[in-house]
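In this supplementary section we document a worked example of the pipeline. Step one takes a protein sequence of length 530 as its only input; no multiple sequence alignment statistics are reported here. Step two produces a three-dimensional model, which step three serialises into structure tokens for compact storage. The input and output of this example are shown verbatim.
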Amino acid sequence: MWRRTYLLLLLIRVYFALSPSYLHPDENFQGPEVYAGRIFGYSSKLPWEFTVDHPIRSIFPLWPTYEVPMSLLKWFYTEIGAGNPPPQLVYYALRGGMFLLSFVLEDWAIYELVPSPRHRRATVVLVASSYVTWTYQTHTFSNSLETLLVAWGLVLIRRIVENKQRSSFFSCAVLSFIAVTGVFNRITFPAFLLIPGLQLLPYFQRKPTSLAAILGFGALFASIAIYTDTAFYRPSSSLLSIIRNPIITPLNNLLYNTDTTNLATHGLHPHHQHFTANLIQLLGPAYIVMILSLFRWPLVPSWLRNARAVSAVSATLLLSIFPHQEPRFLIPCVPLLLSCIRVHRSRVFLAAWIIFNAFMGLLMGVYHQGGVVPAQLAMRDIVAANTAAQGVKAYPDASVFWWKTYSPPQWLLGADGNSSSSAAGPAHIDTLDLMGIPGAELIQRLDATVPHCGAVSPVYLVAPTSATFLDEYTATGTPRAPNLQLYRLWTYRKHLNLDDLDFGDDGVLPTLSRVIGRRGLGVWSVRRSC
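The serialised model returned by step three reads:
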């Protein structure tokens, strides 16, 4: 029975891995966007983390995760004489790679971390049935990679401690690599292994050669990581200049995040946010079970009596010190905590667990900003078809304004001048991210860009169809000054903009009716009403 259940959950994970939902801009701009322009010549824009004087993001963990598969695709298409692969193939190949990493490494690690053979199968199925596994772990997040590194760090710590016969030289070398990669991937990584790692102290006291191996390999891998980062950010640097003036991205990241004024630009949260909101959002009914167990047991509940729970709880406590707290920061806690609870086949829990994950899976894995990626992938064809429909032979450069959406990944446009359609596409598409500026300011920006009457308008607007502000400017409405009209060219219905929930002004039911009932993302051609 458990095998059939696990196989079904595996198919569900594949479905969500290939579903183009968009959970957070970092899944594109801190990963694929960095290498797409360098490898394929795609339109791309490096985020600020990579362009400041003291870069805070490391290239070292990105190289095997994104550059290697992208380079393999580039090599394959070059060998068959097909030029560059289309952006949609690269996008789904990376998603497929994240699925494989989750399926192989996460499930394997959880299977090893649970000591009881009787509980292993149930635990693997429970983790595989979490919407976090379906969605976050199959997206290109640094947090998703951190989850795998934390899990395998705990596996190796356990292997080293339990190996009482000889020095675990190989395990120590691998643990050093995981530790260095984890720190250069995210500076939050040490919080998860700090307390469980104390188990190694008695072992190192008995076998100092293992400690020497940990430190030696750690220094080697850290040197490689620092060299890789410095060479990336200063391509013309010599080896001597790298040694004299290295770029240590984890240190830069730590200094940046310990400054509250910097964190304020990303949003400040109360220190209890992780415990009172974020874990609930990630774990749902499982979190309630764990909290209730604290009141049933006179001493420490059973689920807290292992290294997995200690890792998750201690890390959450440490991360709660920082005032900027997002749910994705706690993704490594999800498989660790789920591997600790025992529900004894409770029908109530099972029903609640299925409903919670089905709802959150569809919301986060399908509808959450779900139209951004399909719209960007289709943008060149949309622009080409609209320009051809107006009888224009020469394709002007296009300006596409994005409003009330997450930042569109520019690398999904492909290389300038390319289109997957048979018609020639525009030479260049200028992507203008307006985020959530007021509607009046949006109209001003459009009015300043749209050409005069009689000229073909190369201006487009991408926005949620739930934005009622645009109703007055649709082709069937009555436009107001400055006499602009919107002609819808394309719509993607599986799109929800949760940032557009305005319960305070519109009320709960009207807001839900608007955002859900009019869900979707539209692409409009912006023209003058002449």
